[in-house]
């Protein structure tokens, strides 16, 4: 059964979902929408009788099918904490990029970014993946958010060290690297045409 992922024709909130679908070898088709009157809620996922919206709910749904939500109580707690922390970072970044005052607000954003990245670096520590020894769906979210920041501030010292190793480790996963080499892969645009960066 092929699942359907519906989203705008940008990277946006669907990037982690696409990566997870590829990684889990889930057969899927995409329905991409251009700006204009689209469906009320994007992204959406249709899997037989199941119809889901909300990007993290979709990620969790796919992850539960493949046991990628953490196994121990500690791992599950780490997944929950990181999921919310990453969404805060993602939403703050999107707000900056869509703001007409982008140039004015950018210095303040860059000033507080190192602290946020240091927190993620400490949270990861010497683990291979954010929840522990095994990959979970939050690693797909973390990859997306960190990769966007790596594009935004290529020389960011906080994106060296263990976070850089995490990004490399993720990109080296067989299914992920195959997807990244394929014609289906969308690195940009991240945002809609109204954004001030990567539109």
Give the total of beta strands. 4
How large a portion of the residues is in β-strands, by DSSP E? 5-15%
Largest sheet: 4 strands, mixed
Helix content: 40-55%
Question: Rounded to an integer, what's the Rg over CA atoms?
Answer: 17 Å
Number of helices: 7
Structural class label: alpha+beta
CATH fold descriptor of one domain: Glutathione S-transferase Yfyf (Class Pi), Chain A, domain 2
The appropriate CATH architecture of one domain is Up-down Bundle
CATH class of one domain: Mainly Alpha
Distance between the termini: 34 Å
Strand order of the largest sheet: 2-1-3-4
C-alpha geometry: globular
The whole-number mean of residue pLDDT values reads 93
Order of helices and strands: EHEEEHHHHHH
Low-confidence stretches: none
Catalytic activity: RX + glutathione = an S-substituted glutathione + a halide anion + H(+)
InterPro entries: Glutathione-S-Trfase_C-like, Glutathione-S-Trfase_C_sf, Glutathione_S-Trfase, Glutathione_S-Trfase_N, GST_C, GST_mu, GST_superfamily, Thioredoxin-like_sf
Organism: Orthonyx spaldingii
Protein name: Glutathione S-transferase
